[in-house]
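Final report, closing paragraph on structural work. Over the funding period we assembled a curated collection of sequence-structure pairs, and we close with a single example.
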Amino acid sequence: MTNSRVQAKKEKKAKKSVKKKKKHVVLKTFLILIALMIITAGSYAFYLFKQSEKAANKAFDKNNTREKSELRQEKVEPLKDNISILFVGIDDSKAREQGSDHSRSDALMLATLNNKDKSVKLLSIPRDSYVYIPYVGHEDKITHAHAYGGTQATIDTVENLLNVPVDYYFRVNFDAFIDIVDALGGIEVDVPYELHELDENDKRTVNLKPGKQVVNGREALALARTRHQDNDIKRGERQQMILEAILKKASSVSSLTKYDDILEAVGNNMKTNMTFNEMKSLAAYIKNGMPQVDSLSLKGSDDMSTGIYYYKLDPNNLLEIKQTLQNHLELSEDELNNSQNNSSDDTSGTDTNSTNTNSNSGYGSDYQSNSDYSGSNSGSGFSSNYDSNNSSNTNQ
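Its predicted structure, as stored:
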């Protein structure tokens, strides 16, 4: 009897020991899995970091030597200062044979970022806006500024128009736009009406029905470019909607695994004066999700008095937009004075005999104006070459 009790106790202890071992095995396995997940996530994060750095370095414009806007007292830092970013969309496709430096800008948007409340104001500038272009010393469509003198000529024109500094720029071609949207798996947009539109190769292959839907890259591009059934203002509003949709999708957790393709698209088809370290600072704006974005537009009227279509800006609305952006950037009194002086100096100078009136632009020869764009008192040969197919606001 005693032996059987002893044997029973031994068996009981043995069973407890086996259970403890099983628990330890399960716990160890669980801890190993967690460790592997952390290592994998960390490795992927490190991989994305290196890919981001690689893409940013590839996109960095080495021709740019402009340290800061002339309207700034000192260089800004995205991590602590309010900044502005100009987005320049260009069509440098082989189909149009304009090249990256002498193509017109097809989309212009200026974003101001307030570092205190992490808010963003996004202004769309109609491509046919009739404005003073400092690079050539006369008024013309703002879309022509890029063809005259590249990115810097566009920056100078926007600064002169709005009296605010342009701290950074992103020049993106259509291929990047398409690739980014496709890498995200498409974006949700609201198509205002039925579209039978040109694709990136100027072939009418894009067909969309009205209403909310997910579109791919080539469909999003067609939606951003069309103005057959409305005008430049509505076109700008669609471009703002599309940019916000891209930002919303890119900042979502579901897009984490797609960043590799996005980065590749960015590195291959974009130029910017923002360094990788400066780009990292912008992460603060999306760490809590999509930031507040207020869309702005420039009011104006259609003008065909010269036989060429122009969009004449409303001076009162323009003044209101200037003040809104200046307040959002919280410009100092000295910077505001610089802005006003810059505007009056540029518009007073009318000497356009030189083909390069912006020798201190900070750009190399690749961005200098072609001799065909020298101009004097009017749009001259450039306008006649490019406006023959753009005599109304219903054309591309």
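The first strand starts at residue 83 and ends at 90. The chain has two domains: 1-59, 62-387. We thank the funder for supporting this effort.
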